[in-house]
Fold each of these.
Amino acid sequence: MFILNLTYTAPLDRVDALRPAHIDWLKDGAAAGYLVGWGRKIPAEGGVILATGERAAVEAFAQTDPYFVNGVARFEVIEFAPSFLAPDLPALAT
């Protein structure tokens, strides 16, 4: 499992202009089975995305994010092996 830690590198007005394309990208990632959750950081300095799959594929998909492509965010890929998941969440471990 992976955490994609996004950090904005541009002013929020530039980030917000790309938000519709970013949301479409998130939905495409969910449909493809890579992305299983996401949300904006508070304060609004970036976002967190939960992902599954092979690391190389997740990293390659992350590089297609409109935020990354247009230089308004950078991301860090953090891989972890869940030792515990609440009973509602076992599917995330795949």
Amino acid sequence: MPIRKKSFSTETIIAIAATVTSVCALIVAIYQTKLSREQQLNSVWPYLIIYESIDENQRSSIMIANHGVGPAIIDSVRVVYKDKPYQLPTQVISEISRQLNRGK
């Protein structure tokens, strides 16, 4: 008696194709969710801009503004004038005033 090869039926082929398609769709969905999460985390970054201005009374001011999407948390500020660090901005203003008064 000859041995007959078992062939796949049409239903079996369709079932295998549907299973493979489902697994691929699941992998794509997981990867897309991961990319979306990364994009969401990376889109929340602060963007600080420093403005210098002098008003009509010749008063100088320095402003820092956040133009980013997320919050800007400033841990520390370091003020340096002519390579000398200062603890407070008012100390820099006093030093500049002294230098201007010596120049007169």
Amino acid sequence: MTSDIDALENLVQQGIVIFVTSGLLFFGVIVIMAIKSPLLFLATMVVLPPVIISSRKFRRNSNDAYLVVRDRIGQTLSTLQESLAGIRVVQAFGREDEQFSRFVDHNQAQYEANVHAVRLSARYFPVVEFTNAAATAIIIGFGGLLVHWHRTSIGTVAAFVAVPGLPDRPHPAVQPAVQPGAAVRCGPQEDFRTARHRGGGGREAGAVDLPSGGELVVDGVSFAYLPGERDTVLSDVSIRVSAAERVALVGPTGAGKSTLAKLMARFYDPIEGSVSYGGVDLKDATFASVRRHIAVVPKKASCSTARFSTT
């Protein structure tokens, strides 16, 4: 989140100003060119279709690429933070090599994601440069004919050559932040207030209160933090917690202990399977009753365990 928020901060501080300035400049240039010489303006528009096609393709591919980049950065930073915070446990159990290997793997994945994003840019921006050069050639060639035919002036041709290159590319500091990766990760991953739970009067429409007691059942739950992600954090997990029973979730860092606890408290909804309390699916329960019966209390611990109990 720290890295994602930094990217959005960069967008707010610099990107919006640059975006608005470039947009006004772009439309201002179009208006001026159309007024000064409609024929020369139409001739330069020949290069516009390739730019539009390549830009749409680049936007579609770069959206996914930058989303992966933000995810890989988060994995690398979280691995580093967890290793440093639990350094005593890591040393006590001789897990230095394993933690180092995890960090190297995540760092390599981040590197590969960045390389893929750079390759997309390397394919797109030469198209922009080529069309800019082609537009200049058309302006000079066709503009020379118009001057020869006394349909325009040399000054107008010179102005056409000077202005098209101004708004042809985004600012490098803005490009990564404009992509939706950071915004998607900082925003809500999924709106768990489904249509069933939207209503008035302080009560969700169609939802029911959880019973006063019962078992907390996790049945075949799978979960991924990002929509459409192939690598799930949890896959086909089932667990049953009886009333007044205490259960400890034990495993290595990143195994999904905290994620499972959050699913059991309905901080997230599973992509497959269900979580129920007293026979009632948490998706069908009022939020007030869920919060009244199920709670997660975060605690900084020096061991890789998560504890969960029901009342």
Amino acid sequence: MIRVLSDALTAADRLQVTLLGLLDLSAAFDCVDHTLLLQRLALQYGLADGVLQWIRSFVSGRTQKVLYDGQLS
């Protein structure tokens, strides 16, 4: 995050335009098939290589458990 801020400030000092695109995928993981999500990100949004691999590693092998009143779901 510090690197992103530094790059944005450097660009501003040079009077360059800085665009930052953020993608919140937290809700998408629960309601969309991960294979389909990755295919659409690649085909419709053009994500590839490192970015797609990072997202793939983020959605693969994840589980969720809830602890309530001493009981684990």
